[in-house]
Amino acid sequence: MKPGEFEAILKANASAVGDLLDDFLSSNQLIAGTPHHLLNAMRHGVLNGGKRLRPFLVCEVAKLFDGNPKAAMQVGLAIECIHSYSLVHDDLPAMDDDDIRRGKPTVHKAFDEATAILAGDALLTLAFGIVASVDTVPHDIRIKLITLMAKKAGAPGMVGGQVLDMQASGKARSEIEITRMQAMKTGALISCACEAGALVSGASDDDRTRMRRYGENVGIAFQLADDILDEYGDASVVGKATRKDRDQGKQTLAQIYGKRALEDRLAALVSGAEEMLEPFGERAERLVEAARFVSIRKS
Amino acid sequence: MKPGEFEAILKANASAVGDLLDDFLSSNQLIAGTPHHLLNAMRHGVLNGGKRLRPFLVCEVAKLFDGNPKAAMQVGLAIECIHSYSLVHDDLPAMDDDDIRRGKPTVHKAFDEATAILAGDALLTLAFGIVASVDTVPHDIRIKLITLMAKKAGAPGMVGGQVLDMQASGKARSEIEITRMQAMKTGALISCACEAGALVSGASDDDRTRMRRYGENVGIAFQLADDILDEYGDASVVGKATRKDRDQGKQTLAQIYGKRALEDRLAALVSGAEEMLEPFGERAERLVEAARFVSIRKS
Hints:
The first copy, chain A, has helices at 5-27, 36-46, 53-64, 69-90, 107-110, 113-132, 139-153, 158-166, 175-200, 205-232, 235-238, 244-247, 253-277, 285-296, and strands spanning 100-101, 104-105. Chain A is mainly α. Chains A, B: GO terms for molecular function: metal ion binding; prenyltransferase activity. Chains A, B: One of its GO terms (cellular component) is cytoplasm.
């Protein structure tokens, strides 16, 4: 790919996903009857100009296995709702206490704390309703998708990772502990998106495992890049407050090993991700680029 | 039934449900790998000595249609996890700010706010995983159950009702607005439990509708009884703070109409619930008693 080509593809995808989410959060029957105030807060939390990396991954993985593109996108939207809810709750005063996300006030700032808690709850609930309603996908596959999401987004995955991260303030952590936390907090949902792309397309168990592993590498790379941005980045470029981990007394791998060593580690994660894609050759080009992209991102 | 018989049945059921939840929240594979701190907070939120009315309703309705008792109970446990998560979030300082529930410190008091938010999130997520894993029930029925739960617990149901309730502080509300809020906030999940009991047992659409309507009446009766307890009850008997609505400037039907008129209304709701059960005669005795019980409860 030419320089900038992947960024352009991802941007076009983000714009399409944003439009679909906008449509969905104004007219879908799963939200019919939602009080306006709540719906506005949910929309504020979701329609935030995000990179939409997770839906992108679901759709690109689904392409490898000739999955139904529309079904893959619906699953992608559900996973993006989960990602969005996690950000809404993460930004709360009791958690990361962030006022700004992507240059806009966070949901509890634009509305209030109670509304932000409830909007997050509603988005999480909606995500399961969306996957249940993907009617081009057999019921048994939908059940597998829901089981996968419940594990990866819940107590043994993303939510568990957030608890581990929260408990880390002011404590020395081992590299193993930090990596486990990162694999859960960020890796689980990204890897869920990749595995879901395989699952929704009826891929074999082997291929599902490959996609899960690809996603795990991408997820950890994403989090390491985040640590580098937090430690060395410029808030105006990153689009959110930096040095937060340090301020909260949280030890990161960036602090332990320094930028250079982390960049080596990122390169190894990208190689690992590429290895999982080898059987698919050229057809997996965009996924290879995605792994590279998350590891060198500037925001 | 003899006086006290229904209470004894409900109590025995609550004890059995509590034991099952305790087992489930220590060894189920859906939570394998959950950090201890998070699991402890989830357990604190769920194992609280509740009445377990929702699992009771799922199981009793399922009996009417010769449903698999174990499958019905699993669905009941999932709905109880949703009920518990809603209490954990409802008790938060940004919401109702309650320190005590059933004589024990609330989750954010026993742990902290961030942990309470995340424990609630994890319980909600778990609920969908539990229903997806009820393997004695056909996949299409499981999908219908998940769709039902997503609507009734989410933005157009329970969460939406909480938002409407929250917005009510200091405002005059019409009877229609209050009733709509109550139907969503409390009625939706109770009615979901009743409809789920029919659904999990393969009942006809007509019977599903009957059970939903029965549940709607029971749900609104439950909430009205709550309003009466809040307005006229004694905190030491009720087991939580009373006069909260009044303190928060929330108008309730108890305030508008007084105790007597509300008791008439409760009687009408119970009659409506009984009417839905007529075709089942003696077999629905416990459900008839349940409707009476919620309308005259003391705590």
